[in-house]
Structure formats: structure tokens, C-alpha cells
Amino acid sequence: MPTMEDALKNALENALKQAYDLDADVIHIEQPKDKQNGDFSTNLAMTLAKTLRNNPFVIAETNKEKLELPSGVDRVEVARPGFINFFVSEDYLSDIIPEILEKGEQFGASDIGKGTHVNIEFVSVNPTGSMHVGHARGAAAGDSMARVMKKAGFDVTKEFYVNDGGNQIHNLALSINVRYHELFGRTLEMPGDAYHGPEITELAETIKAEHGDRYLYEDGYTYFREYGVKYLLDGIKNDLAAFDVEFDVFFSEKSLYDNGEVANTLKFLKENGHTYEKDDALFLNTTDYGDEKDRVIVKRDGTYTYLLPDIAYHKNKLSRGFDKLIDILGGDHHGYIPRLKAAIQMVGGKADTLEVDILQIVKVLREGKEVKMSKRSGKAISLRDLVDDVGKDAVRYFFSRHSLNTHMDLDLDLAIKKTNENPVFYAQYAHARINSLFEKAAEQGYEPDASIQTYQALTNEQAKDIMKLLMNYPSLIEEAATKRIPHKITNYVHTLASALHSFYSAVPILKGEATHIREHLNLLEATRIVLKDALFLIGVNAPRSM
RNA sequence: GUUCCGGUAGCUCAGCAGGAUAGAGCAACAGCCUCCUAAGCUGUAGGUCAGGGGUUCGAAUCCCCUCCGGAACGCCA
After folding, report:
1. Do residue A145 and residue A251 come from a single domain?
2. I want to staple A165 with a disulfide (CB 3.0 to 4.6 A). Which of A142, A253, A296, A384 is the partner?
3. How far is CA A449 from CA A96, A107, A140, A354, A532, in A?
């Protein structure tokens, strides 16, 4: 079914041809914020004013006269500077209801992604501690992005890169060792880059419970490494599950060393002339691809920098057949983008194969003061605690509201205390309200009826507002998916919930004639379907009652 | 010094592939439950869109400069 935008563009093109014998290159159709200005609008006349050397108002009028209105458009008006405004008919609006009832949760799905294989890597926190609230934003954003892109026809793989191979795991093992010894009253000095989180002590306690004092007498290093990573990664997985974030792949950095991919990548880079030696170190020629300076991949002491296994990892992703790689990184890693983009091209990707979405760091406030999130210090506030306090839905809704590059503040006192005023309940309540009405309707012998095809009763402003919003859902999905801006969904949820509440207050739904009740119930069912689906996209439950 | 983000109502933020009177939530104020869940609705008030130039018929939105805040500029990850 062609969209109204396309139909209008067509009609305008024809009108232009007749009136001025002109082929318009781009016709921009928009939806005015103010309903006074129609349901759809074009600024065509203004953009043509210069080439036609005429008053935009006159051009608009001329166009209007030649216009053959597509079905569904009631009337056309020309407004002040030269806007051409289109008003849509009630029949056209209500056609959306049977469509939604028929498609159900498939409504809004599209094939705009054309099955493109997309890998979204996000969270990827080091298994050296628990997830803290700073990580939650990335988890919410990546997961929602994946859900929206799936809905838009992309073939999405969600991936978590487990940094289990580097130096931080060495520090983790040392930290565990210190805590373990402390459990037996022995004080060792914490190394400089140690991890001080309480979870490290818990970890040591489980080792003690299982192995007693064994590692006082034999070297526990290797065991601490393996056990520590597993223990902490399991914890992270649990935290993610509680946050309704699931990954398709947990990819181990260590595996890249074990199966030789890191070494092979190094060889590959050397053989293709992307490296050179200098100061006893091996440099990667990233400036060839626009980086500001070349980067070391093999240090003077012979060990690798973080970059090399990372290149191997991205090479591996490419080898798995992904057309598009998306990395969601924290704002503190933005400087890393040019070298990654350079590297991806060295190993066979194109410049735009990799896209890095930067997520600004969350500033967490407690008692009016900033709380620095750091696993090393151990002072971070865990995601689990926050989810336990305010609930998964509230936290996800909160993080999903803002665009990725907003420097957002999270006031913990506010977030926890104001549970009942959290906007997530506003949206969920709309869904619960609809269900509640259905129960009442059932008592009167009514229920949504998908066989109804024509509508006469949905004439009030509030009902029309809802239908217009419902009609916009498919294009919303497309925009959110292609621009990768999941927060747009959250915005929509709020707007739709608001329209529902207004409708509910203005119209005594179960009081009218039978046909009115039936039509209204169908409108509500369509709303419920879309509301639930949109909430799902941002990882928020749609409760039947509250 | 360079690079990347941000600066919009008292607070938290939308709006930024230019469009019509700049929006929402919270906070404030005034109304609305003998009636389908008041976690709701309706209305009022609140803005020099950091500042200054420029492009344009039209700029919160695009370009340049300045100021303020955050982040990054490692043979750490």
C-alpha cells in the first residue's frame, strides 16, 4: 500500500508538470505540528519561488488548481508564505484500524533493512567486576537499537566482546589473591591497578568455601584468572538478564589468541605492508586511512597493545559475513574511532562497514554530588541494585528517553524516591487502562472485532489524534532504525499514551450505542497493539493491570 | 594546543537531513472523581534556543568565531 506521502508527491509532480512544465527533483512532504495547518504539507512553492521567479503564494495557488487529489485527501489549502496543506478524510484515518488488527504485532515491520547482516557490539564490559549504572545506558541503547532494526528488516546479531585476554585479567587475579589471603587474616599489598569492588571479596569467599586454604600453599594465579572471569561474567550475564538484555554471542578475546587469529592478523598486516618497525616497536600505518598518527600494535617488550586483538576481532566479524558492523562505545573511547576505521579497511572492510555510535557518559548524582563510576575504586553503584530498587522497566525507560549523545544526569535520590512519578508508569498505565476497559466491555458482552471494516463513530478530535499517531508508526520504525535513534520510540510511546489518556477522559467509551462501542473498542485494541509493541522495542513490559 | 560531544522553561530532556505561534515530564498555580483504574484529564504561568556574525523567502536546526561544561589525545584497556 503506497503511503500518503508518495501519493501526494505523485500528484504534486503531475501538477507541476501541467502548470509549469517542470520536473521537480525533490518534493518534501511533512506533517505539520499544528493541525490547523493540515495533516500533510509541502513547502514546494517556496523552494521553487526563485527558479520560477514568482511569488510562492501564487505558485502554490496555481499548483493547487492543477492538483488531482489522491483518494483519502479531503481538501487542500494554501497558507501564508506558500505552504500547500492537505487535510485527510476520516475514512482514510480509520482504515488504519483494520490494518493493525489484521497485522497485529507485525504492524510497523518493514523490509527496509533488506536482510542486511548487522552485528551490533555493545556493553562489552570487562569481566573484572559487576555492571554499574554507567553501563546500563549502553545496554539499554544497544538492545533497543537491535530490536528496532530487527523490526525494520535487518538481520541483527547482538554481540558482547569479552575482554578475557588482556592485562586487566592479570590484575584481577592479583586482586583476588589479595582478598583471598585477607580471608585468612593475611594482609598483602594491593597492586596499583587492583580492583577494589566488593564483588572481588565475594568471589574470594566462594573460592575459600570450595577450596579452603589450598591456595595459601600453592600458586592460585592461573585458577584465579579462570575462575574470576567465569564468576564475574556469570554475574554480568545475570545482571543483563534482569535488565532484559540478551546477547546472541559472547565473544572471547582469549579465543582469538588460542586459535591463532591474533598472530595471523599480525602476519596479515605485515604481509600487506601496513606495518613498520620503529624504536623497537611495530607500528600500524593508520595514517594511510586518515588517522592522525600511526599506532603501536607490538610494544617494545614484545607484547601486543589492545589494538591488535581488536583488529583480529573485527576481522573475525567480517569473516562471519556481516555487511555492517556497529560498535557502541562510551564517550571516553571516541578517540579510538579513526584507528579502528583504518584497521577495518586494512583487513578487507570498507570505510563505512564499521560505524561507531558514541554514547556519552552518564553523570550519576547522589545527595547532589557526583558519584564517579569506576570498577577499580569499587565505589560504583551496581546496576543490579538500581534495578532492584526502581524496577527494570523504569530504568530502561529512563535510559531510552535520551539520545545517545546527550550528556545525561542520573539523580539517584530522584530516580529511587520518585517511583510513582516515573514517566514509565504513564505509558504502562495507558496499556493497563485499555485492558481494564476490555474486561468491563466483556461484562457487557463486547470485545474487539477484527471483522469491522468501516467506521463512522470515530469523529472526535481525540480519536483522530490517536489514529494519526498509529498511522505514523511504520515510518517511525524506519526512521529510528535507519538513523539508529531508539529514543525516538520512547518519545512516541509517551505521545501515544498521552493521546490515549485524553481520549479516555473525553469519551465515555462503554456508554454509547453498540456500533460506537464496537468501533471504539477496535480503536483501543489497535492502540494497545502498537503501544505494547513500541514498549517491547525499548524493553519495557506492558502490564495488563496496575 | 588538537579532536569529539553538549549548552533549549526553575530542574531533566525532546525538537536539529531549515519551515508556520519552540515542546514534554517534573516542580508551580487553578479546576475536574454520585461516571469505564485520578499512576489520569483540562487550563494558566514559565524561553533573548550560551553569545556574536553569516547563508536563506525563512535558522534552535546549516557555516564561521567566541564563551562555558564534559570527554579524549599512552608502547593502558
Report:
1. yes
2. A253
3. 14, 17, 36, 47, 19
